[in-house]
């Protein structure tokens, strides 16, 4: 996942606080963790490692869902073109 691709504003140019930006970054990190776990799952064949891969994927998914709920509760909305620039922090 390219972090620079995460950093563009929505069309209405919302100003995000530093806390909101950190939450958005955490969501992107959790999404990346889910993708890594899914890729790892595809690569392993040993039963113990398959169990570990499933655990990793479930943990990443749980974190991702939690962070999405937090963002929703705080009214944070972004799309794939969200960009963060230091001057955008209110």
Automatic annotation (TrEMBL):
This is YaaL family protein. It comes from Clostridium rhizosphaerae. The lineage of its organism: Bacteria, Bacillati, Bacillota, Clostridia, Eubacteriales.
């Amino acid at each position: 996942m390219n972090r620079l691709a995460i950093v563009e504003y929505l069309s209405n140019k919302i100003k995000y606080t530093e806390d909101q930006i950190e939450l958005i970054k955490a969501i992107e990190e959790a999404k990346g963790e889910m993708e890594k776990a899914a890729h790892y799952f595809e690569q392993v064949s040993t039963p113990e490692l398959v169990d570990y891969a499933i655990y990793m994927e479930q943990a990443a998914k749980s974190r991702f869902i939690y962070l999405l709920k937090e963002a929703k509760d705080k009214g944070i909305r972004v799309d794939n073109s969200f960009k963060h620039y230091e001057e955008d922090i209110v």
